[in-house]
Amino acid sequence: MIHNGGVHRWFFNTAQWNPSEHEFSFLLSVLPQHEQSSITRFLRLDDRKRALISRLLQYGLVHQVLGIPFEDIIINRTLEGKPYLENIVIDSELPNFNFNVSHHGDYVAIASDSIHIVGVDIVSHVIPERETTLEHVQNFSSYFTSLEWGKIMEAEISDEILGELYRYWCLKEAFIKAIGAGLGYDLERLEFHHTNWTDIYCHIDGHKSEEWQFWLSELGEGHWVSVARGHPRFAVKNYRKTLHSAEVEESAYHSNVQMPTNFIPQTIEQLLPVSLRESYRILSSKIT
């Protein structure tokens, strides 16, 4: 088991992983049946790979942090689609153990926390093919405040305009995912401020929030990853019901405000239970 206060940041590069049919089937078999069907419903292999790695990151993290066997882990989703652990966690150091996953482009990432609610988002630097950069960017104009929009549009090079857009978008999505909100949340309620994308803070409904922390960093070439974590009281109703300590005392909340670790790359073997690693190793060696 790895405890580390329940705070973890993992990622996996799916573009560098080319599993055989046997390897993919083996990894599917370690997951519950309902998870298997949610993966195989995708037609494209790239989508299946991302879905499988997303599940393995979730189950692997829960197993390693809490010691729950894969077959006993119960992960459900709220009506808004936020994944949460159904199993009851009896650990005073992990009163609100929660996690969030994201995938885009070449990467899948997971972030977890013990007291704060946490959200993670990945954005790949996609260059539009059927429209100009300005046409593409204009599609997002209603999601940003006038200050944010000004920062985006003051960049002079198309690539820089896209970069600004994606970084702001990445932060907003991480916040939405942290609170467990659905598509109906008005992103213009959030206004992000930063110093060269460090010391990031957010205004919510026009007021600076002291109860949120944000991090933004590059994740490989052409990808950004952001993490948002804040007080459980911000969780939407359906998600708040899944938390064991939604009303965290201020002293406990602030005493637990520790810097998260950097995102750490994971291998397939690392995500599996120890009891299955040798079988996977043998299978992989036969294939190669």
UniProtKB/TrEMBL annotation:
Residues 118-227 form the 4'-phosphopantetheinyl transferase domain. Residues 16-113 form the 4'-phosphopantetheinyl transferase N-terminal domain. Its EC number is 2.7.8.7. Coiled coil: none annotated. GO terms for biological process: lysine biosynthetic process via aminoadipic acid. Keywords: Transferase. It is an enzyme of class 2 (transferase). Pfam families: AASDHPPT_N, ACPS. SUPFAM superfamilies: 4'-phosphopantetheinyl transferase. This is holo-[acyl-carrier-protein] synthase. The lineage of its organism: Eukaryota, Viridiplantae, Streptophyta, Embryophyta, Tracheophyta.
